[in-house]
Amino acid sequence: MKKNIIALLIFAVVTLIMTYPAALNMKKHIPGDLGDPLYVTWALSWNTDKIYDGFKDYWDANIFYPNKLTLAYSENVLGIALAGLPVMLLTNNVVLSYNIMFLLAFILSGFGVYLLTKHLTGSFWGSIIAGIIFSFAPYRFGYLGQLPVLTAQWVPFGFLYLHKYFKGFKSKHLVLFVFFFIIQWLSCLYNGIFMTVFVVLFMLYYGIRNGSIKIKYLLMASMTLLFVLIFLIIFMHPYSEVKKQYGFKRSAYEAEYYSLHVESYLALPQLNKMHGIWTKGGVSAGFVGLLLAIIGFWPGIKLNTYFNNRYKLLRRFWCALFYLNIAIIAWYVINGGQPINIFGKNMLGNPGKTNPVSCLLALIFIRLCFDKNLRQSVYCFIKSINLNEKFYFITAVTAILLSFGPTIQFFNESSIKGPYAILYNYIPGFDGIRVVLRIQMFVFLGLSVLAAYGYEKLSKKWGKKDIFGALLAVLILIEYSSFPISVCAVKTDKDIPAVYNWLGSQKEDFAIIEVPLKFSDPFGESLRMYYSTYHRKKMINGYSGYFPPVYMRLAGLNDAFPSNEYLDILRKEGVKYVVINSDKYPGTAWAKIRESLNKYRGKIIFVQQFDSDFVYQIQKG
Fold first, then answer.
1. Are 116 and 152 in contact (CB under 8 A)?
2. From the CB of residue 150, how many other CB atoms can be counted at a distance below 10 Å?
3. N or C: which end of the chain has fewer CB within 10 A?
């Protein structure tokens, strides 16, 4: 217990350093930008209100009026809201609640993997290193503005109690797994859906490979998972309704566009301080973490291939082709997929013409088919690997393959169809996922556990020295460093624009629209959503994963405001007030609009001005 407390403190301190300066002014600043973070603050506030109201009209949020079920256009973040409820009860400051949940996402992600790997390996420093790899992996700093994606801490806790259940078969461990599984689903749909894939993989793997598990315990776990999924499907039914009503669906093109490529795993994000200068768009685990993971997976035996001399020439030819393709891949990675030019001559074209990844896979396949001794060596290699190590290796490899999306690509050049295409085409829910690459979290879950095993093997060989573990942890943190991160100021309470306090003082329930609509500028609409937490009026405005027809129609008429068509739509939909943000119009556009409004006094009249915000009222027909 004492070591666990020390570990928790380590992750807390590391989080404060790695996310600096996020913790300095948590009441009036927010990490990342003012797009998705403000959507989440709005959603947290909405969830808190609905918890107070007993979840009355929970899914019918105040955005995208007059549409219903608008909370189901994107993440509902109920799990994050429940975790942040004590903060809201004590402070009623949604920005502070957001920031605390942001920091906890890093602290608990690291601590969760620490507990998981401590249970599997017993190594303190190996588990600390594993937690660092999982929680502070460079790719996570590319999601600073997307709290639901960062909220992955319940995944390792869930797997921890799955392991405990399959070891001792205690019902309390199964109950705790269910709790963390549900809270992960409610915190982030992406992580919940992906977690389901690997939970099923876990049960299949240990059910088949672990002969000590009785069938009744496996059935109990499977039935429990089934009932939990049925509950979640019922609760999340509005997502299905929205899909049917508006045809909301992510195309295969979107799934491919927001997937990783082969070269992505060989690079780090540009914001990474150590490697990001010369790599971009990557999700590599870095040198130290990856080396530990390889050591963790390697069983310590040699791969003997026993080649006969008569195949020596053929072997050398195969090796030459193999290393040639490795060299070509390395060239493309370093040069961003550009053709290979030597002395001004194009020696090799783009990756789509050379297809080095496909050639490499073909060479490996051919070698395995015709080299019996190699197959036997690989079989012995795999057989000698620890049961748990093997599962987390399979987890990492499966996640890598799925992260490529429907088609495995190398620098935008399609190579082969990926296994994700099966999930997209045949498993409900996967056609609603846009950013497939977010499954990379499970790549790092697998790598972090393997790294813990790697450290444990090294410590047995070199002796368990705390200084060695601490040094490796520091090296990984240096390699992962991305601070200082960006933070943005957010107005709160009396500092917000006066028009929103005025709207909040109006007691009756009515609908508004703020113009101009900002379809092409999500920051503008998410800021309006955040300010709506101070008045909670229904609004045609909104920012989410999808945009409904009424909003899109009015957005298409932005340049025509005011017009008979525009005002007739507002009157038909029952909008009472039009809030005009005059400072959002370029040049003399506002002066022309203000002059035009005088022509429509029978439909719209001036009410009040608040600095650059003008309130007009739609006249009833």
1. no
2. 26
3. N
User: Pick the residue with more confidence: 74 or 377?
Assistant: 74
For 384, residues 6+ apart whose C-beta sits below 8 A from its C-beta are: 299, 300, 301
Computed over every residue of the chain, the mean pLDDT equals 85
Give me the residue label for tokens 């088609």. 407
d(CA 80, CA 228): 19
Sequential DSSP letters for 102-165 = HHHHHHHHHHHHHHHHHHHH--HHHHHHHHHHHHS-GGGGGGTT-HHHH--THHHHHHHHHHHH
Tell which wins on pLDDT, 326 or 526. 526
Residue 316 gets which letter from DSSP?
H
pLDDT digits (tens, 9 = 90+) for 16-49: 999 999 999 899 999 998 889 999 999 999 999 9
Pairing of strands 345-348, 413-417: unpaired
Question: Which residues share a beta bridge with 413?
Answer: 410
Buried b (16+ CB within 10 A) or exposed e, 194-212: bbbbbbeebbebbbeeeee
Query: Omega of the bond prior to 21 within 30 degrees of 0, cis?
Result: yes
Give the mean model confidence (pLDDT) for residues 312-322. 77
Q: CA 48 to CA 375: how far, in whole Å?
A: 58
Written as six digits, the tokens of 493 are: 């309470």
Q: What is the pLDDT of residue 254?
A: 81
For residue 346, the model assigns a pLDDT of 53
Over the stretch 140-193, which tens digit does the pLDDT of each residue have?
998 999 999 999 999 999 999 999 998 888 999 999 999 999 999 999 999 999
| H-only helix segments in 236-311 | 237-246, 252-257, 287-297
Strand pairing partners for 581? Answer: 613
Helix axes 564-572, 549-556, angle to 10 degrees: 160
β-pairing, 511-515 vs 575-581, is parallel
C-alpha 412: how far from chain center: 22
Reference 80, options 108, 116, 60, 54; nearest CA is: 108
Position with higher pLDDT, 315 vs 115: 115
Residue pointed to by tokens 């499970």: 442
pTM of the model: 0.88
Give 24: exposed, middle or buried? Use CB within 10 Å, 0-12, 13-18, 19+: exposed
Contacts of 386 (CB under 8 A, 6+ apart): 299, 453
In tens, the pLDDT along 448-461 reads 999 999 888 888 77
Please, which residues have CB within 8 angstroms of residue 240's CB and are 6 or more apart in sequence? none
Classified as helix, coil or strand, 496 is coil
C-alpha distances out from residue 147 to 32, 44, 81, 130, 251, Å: 10, 11, 12, 21, 24
Instruction: Tell me the CA distances in angstroms from 4 to 8, 18, 164, 464, one per residue in order.
Output: 6, 21, 17, 18
